[in-house]
Amino acid sequence: MKRLLAGAAALATAFVLAACSGGAASGGPNAGGGAVAAAGTGGGAPATTSSTTPTPTTTSETPTPTPTSSKPKPKPTPTSTTPKPKPKPPANNPDVPCAAAAAAAGTAACVDISAHQAWILQGGKVVYGPVKMLPGRPSNPTPTGTFRVLSKEKMHLSNEFDNAEMPNSVFFYPGDAFHTGSLSVYSHGCIHLSASASLKFFNTLHVGDVVQVVP
């Protein structure tokens, strides 16, 4: 009985030692030894414990650049240039050869004998013409110079030429006037105009207005 108990105890002790030795299979170098080999002796190198030291993580923060606020440049102010006024045309019409008539402040008449043309001016500007006219014949020429309107007659009868009719007569010289007459036959000193032109001269010119006749 004592032998059974002693054998059982020995078996239990061997089982415990085998369980604590890391679970080695029976029959190995330590089997049946009943003791654990000391470090550096017998059954193998001691277990090496490797401790890994964590590498410290270095976080480098890149500083965010502070935005520099620059004020926007002011837009260039457009320079407005005032257009220069156009030069006014001269008061005197360059086509009119009568300086005195063009210089008159009121209504005036101009007659160009050689060109067979006549105009009406107002304040130096042409308001009518040129219109065709016929002057006196060489034996009875129309006087040249600067005159003034002497009188007006709607229908003048010429005593010198058998009461010949002279419609729309505007006298600027004794015996000579603007009036309706032939534009193909020269007069005896008067200025022949068409019916419409003589009416315009009669209605526009007044007693005292300047009449200039140039050769």
What does this structure look like?
With 215 residues, the chain is an alpha+beta fold. It has helices at residues 2-20, 99-103, 195-204, and strands at residues 107-112, 117-122, 125-132, 145-148, 151-158, 164-173, 176-180, 191-193, 210-214. A five-stranded mixed beta sheet has the order 3-2-1-9-4. A hairpin with a 4-residue loop joins strand 1 (107-112) and strand 2. The longest helix has 19 residues, at 2-20. It is globular and about 40 Å long. The chain starts with a helix and ends with a strand.
Which descriptors apply to this entry?
215 residues, alpha+beta, 4-stranded mixed β-sheet, 3 helices
Question: What can be said about this structure in brief?
Answer:
This protein has 215 residues and is α+β, with helices and mostly antiparallel strands.
Note the topology.
Blueprint: H1 2-20, H2 99-103, E1 107-112, E2 117-122, E3 125-132, E4 145-148, E5 151-158, E6 164-173, E7 176-180, E8 191-193, H3 195-204, E9 210-214
